[in-house]
Amino acid sequence: MYESMEYIPKRVLTIGFPSLHTTMGTLPDSVMQDIVNILQLPPEDTECILRSNDHPKIWLKVKTMEYPANGFQDLAFLILDGFENGDQPPSKFVVFFDNTKESECTAKFLQG
After folding, report:
1. Structure pTM?
2. What H or E segment, with its residue span, contains residue 45?
3. What pLDDT tens digit does each residue of the chain (112 aa) get?
């Protein structure tokens, strides 16, 4: 997926952007090195800042699936029954997906 970034350097680096910021949920060292190489980032001007998500207010929840994987019913617990616009919003949460299409379909499902 990130291989399409090979077209960025000519535009970004010739325009002279002072900085390029990216954020990633998980990023193995090998992928980071690929990104640096593809973008042709000069080592002397490149700084990688890594932050841990180990935080007392962040935790993981794992649940056994009860419904088919091609549906979204297993995520219904995130939104309270009877929730309507104007109600107090649910607690903040993050769900990770493999692709954009699936995340968009899930968002529509959760929005009712």
Report:
1. 0.48
2. none
3. 455 555 555 555 555 556 666 666 677 888 888 888 887 788 887 888 777 767 777 777 888 999 998 889 999 888 888 888 888 888 888 888 888 999 999 989 888 7
Q: CA 102, CA 98: separation in Å to the nearest integer? A: 8
- Residue 94's nearest CA partner among 55, 48, 68 is 55
Cα-Cα end-to-end distance for the chain: 31
Question: Tokens for 112?
Answer: 């009712």
Is-contact 38 2, C-beta < 8 A? yes
Q: For tokens 């499902």, what's the residue?
A: 109
Six-digit token string for 108: 């529509």
